[in-house]
């Protein structure tokens, strides 16, 4: 399925589609480590290939990694090797793959939520009682077919809910600001490259643009992976949405000198009290937004909500390899070739000397008291005046 351009217009260019599935059912991802300068499609047919793509961040974005994990499982279940197994053997194999895929990145809950949907089905699935080989084969085939449908649903349900959240978030923010055209800020990348299409926070920006309610979308570069300067920049320029890139260090200055109507971000995990894990740099944006009395909106599908955790202190924050923060990927403007350059002295982030350390968490946690509202496809949960928590259960 090709990701849709805003409001279902012409399909987005390939380079803005995180996952594509061809007529034969072959799943492919665009290697996001090479974007925006090179478009390289990588076939993904097995959980091992999906695990590598997710772990190495060839594909990233909480909903997109859940989709790829599920689609890789679906592909593997079509192989003769699986179809020759007994139902019990198939069940065990699927449960093992769910554990393996879920271990690829720990913070985004969409991945574990998708795997749990499969686990729940398997654990509640009652096979046919007959032990004859033909009925055993059909029972195994029935189990495979049902799990494959769940995998396909994980991928396909994302686009429509993103467009719903875009509409709900844009309506809330336009009403809050009372202005005809809004200036908004976003962090990281939450568009078609992070989802099955349209995006979450960028979905709200797109909806504002479609409603002619957008003045400018400011986006932070979001180092060290540069989701903003490489990916959000690609999406907003391709969609021709009025945008302005800022360095991560410029948020405070922007808030001092521009009349910003809202900060809109995605999420990797929103817990019961509304505390939210999102890309590193989100927390400081929230602190600055409160300082400047700017509404702070989190946009995420219900599959990002984790009611099993009471507060953000319980969220496992992924630490990326230190060396990733010492390097930058880009296009060498002299040679025209893609390069990875090291910006630090040799050994920083790799050596074991006390002066070579690098701190490189992939996410941080924004307390609910800094968040104005959380938007899911089920609605908008606002934080009440003076409250420290947000009741997100009302929008699950
Ligand atoms: C709709 S994407 C949600 C979330 O995922 C991103 O993290 P990463 O790029 O490391 O996968 C970022 O935190 C986005 O806000």
TrEMBL record:
Active-site residues, record numbering mapped to chain: 268 (proton donor)
Where this protein primarily resides, as one coarse class?
cytoplasm
Q: Which Pfam families match?
A: IF-2B (PF01008)
GO terms of molecular function:
S-methyl-5-thioribose-1-phosphate isomerase activity
* Domain of life from the UniProt record: Eukaryota
Q: Which reaction does it catalyse?
A: 5-(methylsulfanyl)-alpha-D-ribose 1-phosphate = 5-(methylsulfanyl)-D-ribulose 1-phosphate
InterPro entries for the chain: IF-2B-related (IPR000649), IF-M1Pi (IPR005251), IF_2B-like_C (IPR042529), Initiation_fac_2B_a/b/d (IPR011559), M1Pi_N (IPR027363), NagB/RpiA_transferase-like (IPR037171)
Query: Keywords for this entry?
Result: Amino-acid biosynthesis, Cytoplasm, Isomerase, Methionine biosynthesis, Nucleus
**Which parts form a coiled-coil structure per UniProt?**
none
Entry EC no(s): 5.3.1.23
One GO-annotated biological process of the protein? L-methionine salvage from methylthioadenosine
Q: Which SUPFAM superfamilies does this chain map to?
A: NagB/RpiA/CoA transferase-like
- Please provide one cellular component term from the Gene Ontology annotations of this protein: nucleus
- Give the pathway: Amino-acid biosynthesis; L-methionine biosynthesis via salvage pathway; L-methionine from S-methyl-5-thio-alpha-D-ribose 1-phosphate: step 1/6
* Function, in words: Catalyzes the interconversion of methylthioribose-1-phosphate (MTR-1-P) into methylthioribulose-1-phosphate (MTRu-1-P).
Q: NCBIfam families this protein is in? A: eIF-2B_rel, PRK05720.1, salvage_mtnA
**PANTHER family in the cross-refs:** METHYLTHIORIBOSE-1-PHOSPHATE ISOMERASE
Please give the name of this protein: Methylthioribose-1-phosphate isomerase
Q: Which organism is it from?
A: Kwoniella dejecticola CBS 10117
Could you tell me the gene encoding this protein?
A: MRI1
């Amino acid at each position: 399925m090709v990701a849709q351009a805003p409001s279902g217009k012409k399909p987005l260019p390939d380079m803005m589609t995180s996952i594509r599935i061809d007529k034969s059912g072959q799943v492919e991802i665009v290697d996001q480590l090479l974007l925006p300068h090179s478009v390289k499609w990588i076939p993904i047919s097995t959980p091992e290939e999906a695990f590598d793509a997710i772990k190495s961040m060839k594909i990233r974005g909480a909903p997109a990694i859940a989709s790829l994990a599920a689609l890789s499982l679906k592909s593997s279940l079509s192989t003769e090797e699986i179809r020759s197994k007994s139902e019990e053997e198939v069940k065990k194999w699927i449960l093992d793959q769910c554990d393996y895929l879920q271990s690829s990145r720990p913070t985004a809950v969409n991945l574990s939520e998708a795997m749990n949907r499969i686990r729940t089905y398997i654990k509640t699935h009652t096979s046919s009682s007959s032990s004859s080989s033909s009925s055993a084969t059909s029972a195994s085939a029935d189990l495979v077919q049902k799990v494959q449908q769940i995998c396909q649903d994980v991928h396909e349900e994302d686009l429509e809910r993103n467009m719903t959240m875009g509409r709900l978030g844009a309506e809330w923010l336009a009403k809050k600001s009372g202005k005809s055209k809004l200036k908004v800020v976003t962090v990281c990348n939450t568009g078609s490259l992070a989802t099955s299409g349209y995006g979450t926070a960028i979905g709200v920006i797109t909806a504002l643009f479609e409603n002619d309610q957008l003045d400018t979308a400011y986006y932070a570069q979001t180092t060290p992976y540069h989701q903003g300067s490489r990916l959000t920049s690609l999406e907003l320029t391709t969609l021709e949405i009025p945008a302005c890139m800022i360095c991560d260090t410029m948020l405070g200055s922007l808030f001092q000198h521009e009349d910003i109507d809202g900060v809109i971000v995605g999420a990797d995990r929103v817990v019961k009290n509304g505390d939210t894990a999102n890309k590193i740099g989100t927390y400081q944006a929230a602190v600055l937004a409160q300082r400047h009395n700017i509404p702070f909106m989190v946009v995420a599908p219900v599959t990002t909500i984790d009611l099993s955790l009471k507060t953000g202190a319980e969220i496992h924050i992924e630490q990326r390899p230190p060396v990733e923060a010492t390097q930058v990927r880009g296009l060498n403007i002299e040679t025209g070739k893609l390069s990875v350059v090291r910006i630090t002295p040799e050994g920083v982030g790799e050596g074991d000397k006390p002066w070579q350390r690098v701190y490189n968490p992939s996410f941080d946690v924004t307390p609910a008291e800094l968040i104005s509202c959380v938007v899911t496809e089920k609605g908008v949960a606002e934080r009440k005046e003076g409250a420290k928590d947000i009741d997100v259960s009302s929008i699950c």
